[in-house]
Amino acid sequence: MTTHSEKTPVSYDELAAMIDHTLLKPESTPADAAALAREAEKLGTYSICVSPSMLPIETSVHVATVCGFPSGQVAPEVKAFEAADSVKKGAEEVDMVINVGRAIAGDSDFTEQEIRAVREAAPKPVVLKVIIESAALSDEQIVASCEAAKRAGADFVKTSTGFHPAGGASAHAVKLMRETVGEDFGVKASGGIRTLDAAEEMIAAGANRLGLSGSAAILAELEARA
Length: 226
What we know:
By secondary structure, this protein is α/β, with parallel strands linked by helices. The chain is built from 9 helices and 8 strands. It has one domain (about 10-225): TIM Barrel (Alpha-Beta Barrel). The protein has helices spanning about 10-15, 30-45, 75-90, 100-105, 110-120, 140-150, 170-180, 195-205, 215-225, and strands at about 20-25, 45-50, 60-65, 95, 125-130, 155-160, 185-190, 210. Helix 5 runs parallel beside helix 6 (about 140-150). It is globular and about 45 Å long.
């Protein structure tokens, strides 16, 4: 059970500035994505995160998208093409899924190479986040994947797609990821974060970005507590 000593209280503005307001359900429509953008603007979140097929999308907040989502099993050159195409259509941030099977097999060279391929296709200032699907990995595999992301020039490591049956973000994984990448690298917690307590727990563990689909409810919970 999490205690309050294990959480980091945040203000509304601080929390909103960490949120990628997310809509990645397969059945989502362009109207749903447009509504997400309007909601993000009202809430003041850092960004929206939508599927590549929803691009381009007009909004005053930052625009993130996903790549190789959700399985990560497409070829690196396909991920690279998808990332480049998304950037052409206005994506400022790309959240790519690694080939989780290769990570489990211990092939960190492959992980590094596929991340590097996407990085080259979507060079800075595009922000590249690397989804490692931490719930499906051992601690050793999490560390190896995070180290590969750093070597390949990514900007963030991210816990989860939110679609894997193994589960989503955990404070343990976030803490390990932060310890591995250091303080000058991004850590995004995503997958199953549905309450303010959970969000604060992830921040306390080391996350500086959160992927949330229930952003409005969590921010409302924060306002109610104040």
